[in-house]
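Folding problem:
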Amino acid sequence: MIKKNSINNEKIVDLISIVKSFDHVKAVNNVSLGINEGEFFSLLGPSGCGKTTLLRVIAGFEKPENGNVFINGTNVNSVAPNNRPTNMVFQNYAIFPHLNVSENVGYGLRNTNLSKDQILKKIDGALKLVGLKGYNKRASSALSGGQRQRVALARALILKPRVLLLDEPLSALDKNLREQMQFELRQLQKSVGITFILVTHDQTEALTMSDRVGVMFNGKVDQVATPEQIYNKPETKMVAAFIGSMNFFETKCLEKSSKTVTVFHKDLGNVKLLKNNIFGVESTKLTIGIRPENLKIISDNLKIQSKSFTAKIVEKSFMGDTMLYSIKLNQSENNNTYNISISDIKNSPNPNIGDKISVTFEEADVVAYYEE
């Protein structure tokens, strides 16, 4: 996990009731969102959820039909993109093929009052910042994917924006390079100290790099929180299903107290839920969620936690650093399967497909959602 930044709680970007439609379909539907000075903020969601449209509204490339965009306390609805204190790194990097690295990075300084020597000094500084010192004369066609991304970053940062907007800048990179660039991008943000707003559909990318994450579906922001809160306490069932993996069990409410709600499932039995782990409008039916890594296979080395049940293994997959088991419950009347993820493979039991196992979990790790 990359160490997070210390941030200023003053808003640098404030979106108020933003609406943007295309062909009568609301791509962004009444979104209000505040992003802090010096924060690494990610907009996360599936394709078509409106995250890139919202980023383009901040940049000024799209004009909202309703709502207001404030940057550094100023309403910028009528301000052109080139006059906003923002810059954008596009998904395809938009590197000019006929220009070399130095010419690409310094492109935005052409119409300034800076001398040639001042421009060259700024270009050198920007290239050093992104780890491309000495690449000034390199042809654009001779750059790798990671180098092209660094050039795009240098070109955006050389203008010293208050906010840097990044539209899925790592999506075209292979897995190893993408993970390396996640670390470098976060370190870069910490070193320059400005606000980064990243759009991504990659959950790991958002959770690893961000101070806070906004999860979007269907033009709306479902939840804004730290990566830890998003993962451990997703506030809607859609967020819970989208972030990582979650086992869902339909239950019925039995009784309530001041701090807990007890529900019943025919395989899990009675499960006592903490009220601050329950979300939605109160009703008699709840769907509970348990992360695969919070389900443990009982063995001589592992004591039973607060709850246990029995199951049968129907699939087993070696994932390198984890073992993933698919299980069916004994009394299940449907074909639902549930997952168990074991990270400590060497010290855990190694059952096979068809084996019956006993599974345990802590009730405090369970989240729940009221059903209408």
User: Anything to note?
Assistant: The first helix runs from residue 51 to 59. Residues 127 and 133 are 5 Å apart (CA to CA). The chain has a mean pLDDT of 90. The chain has two domains: 11-241, 245-371.
